[in-house]
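Inverse folding, one chain.
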């Protein structure tokens, strides 16, 4: 097949599949080694490979990524595609000579941004073994070029200010953080639904759901190749009331998913889109996580505790790329889910604070601003509680 297939944005949808088969020969692997300069003997030297735990020569993992590239560029989505990312796993070795089937399926498609995700599976036909699964993030280059990007016109200041991506930008804390940070940074506010008309012209908006499988693709399209100085993660899903024994398991699972896998995805996205000199990741936590767990919102406490531990584990990994990660953990703040509390509750919570006042959105926003400042360049892996002196 020499001519790529053509799918228009109107043709694409989740669930569309395509496949092809091909033989992998000794000559193919030698040619790939010549092109890539990867002459590792596990792939090339039959005698060497026989003495390893694999027992025989195996195909390069990158060769299988090349098969995914062929699927993407020639079969699905075809001619108009531009690859944005690859995520790969190799559950079984692929020996050669062999014949494989390469199957692609659109698993996510966002018509508004003409972007999506293609899952490619490579199966060795004689054994039916799955040897690789590759998720390809893509966009359609003609669709992107056809419509002018409004944010490029509306936000020329992005060229002069460092860019900060803020999740949960429409929440009570998110709005104040956006306002404070926009004094020094160009803020891209990420929200689940399109915000109402706002006066904060320094904020650029992107609509994406962190619970979706393709939010990275949507935000990547919004960035248009721009690099991030920082990512401030203020989003969090509503948590169930009650103890862990009473809460629905799916609700508990959602909190743990957001605090664990969710923050890993956030960190990976920032690492992939960070500016050349490094970046900052600031996450909003709570004193109700590990400092003072709250039984009547136990699933929420558990999810936030998982987030804290994930941040500690991510800190040394991100540090290799000169990226810091820290948690701002406020105590009771009278916004968001707490805005409906009675005056009696507000007075009770205030009485617990030795400073004599509650933590405010301004306190949280200014602390986030500190973590983005040069003064916090050597601070990473920390949880900073905003307690007002509470023990």
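Residues assigned per position:
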């Amino acid at each position: 097949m020499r001519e790529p297939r053509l799918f228009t944005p109107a043709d694409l949808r989740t669930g569309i599949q395509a496949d092809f088969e091909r033989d992998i020969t000794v000559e193919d692997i030698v040619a790939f080694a010549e092109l890539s300069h990867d002459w590792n003997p596990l792939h090339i030297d039959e005698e060497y490979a026989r003495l390893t735990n694999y027992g025989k020569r195996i195909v390069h993992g990158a060769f299988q990524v090349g098969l995914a590239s062929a699927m993407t560029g020639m079969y699905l989505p075809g001619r108009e595609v531009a690859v944005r990312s690859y995520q790969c796993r190799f559950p079984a070795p692929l020996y050669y000579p062999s014949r494989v089937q390469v199957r692609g399926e659109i698993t996510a498609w966002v018509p508004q941004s003409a972007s999506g995700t293609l899952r490619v599976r490579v199966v060795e036909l004689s054994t039916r073994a799955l040897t690789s699964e590759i998720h390809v993030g893509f966009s359609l280059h003609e669709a992107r070029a056809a419509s002018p990007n409004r944010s490029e016109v509306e936000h020329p200041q992005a060229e002069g200010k460092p860019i900060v991506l803020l999740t949960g930008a429409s929440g009570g804390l998110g709005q104040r953080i956006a306002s404070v940070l926009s004094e020094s940074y160009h803020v891209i506010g990420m929200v689940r639904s399109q915000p109402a008309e706002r006066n904060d012209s320094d904020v650029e908006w992107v609509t994406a759901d962190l619970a979706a499988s393709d939010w990275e693709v949507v935000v990547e399209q919004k960035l248009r190749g721009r690099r991030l100085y920082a990512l401030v993660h203020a989003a969090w899903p509503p948590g169930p009331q009650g103890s862990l024994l009473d809460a629905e398991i799916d609700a508990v699972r959602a909190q743990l998913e957001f605090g664990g896998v969710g923050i890993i995805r956030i960190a990976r996205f920032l690492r992939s889109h960070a500016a050349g000199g490094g970046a900052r990741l600031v996450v909003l936590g709570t004193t109700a996580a590990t400092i003072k767990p709250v039984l009547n919102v136990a699933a929420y406490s558990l999810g936030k505790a998982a987030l804290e531990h994930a941040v500690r584990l991510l800190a040394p990994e991100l540090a290799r790329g000169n990226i810091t990660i820290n948690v701002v953990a406020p105590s009771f703040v009278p916004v968001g889910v707490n805005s409906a509390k009675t005056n009696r509750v507000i007075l009770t919570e205030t009485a617990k604070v030795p400073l004599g006042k509650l933590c405010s959105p301004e306190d949280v926003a200014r602390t986030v601003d500190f973590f983005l400042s040069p003064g916090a360049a050597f601070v990473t892996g920390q949880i900073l509680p905003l307690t007002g002196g509470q023990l």
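The first strand starts at residue 17 and ends at 24. The CA atoms of residues 3 and 74 lie 7 Å apart.
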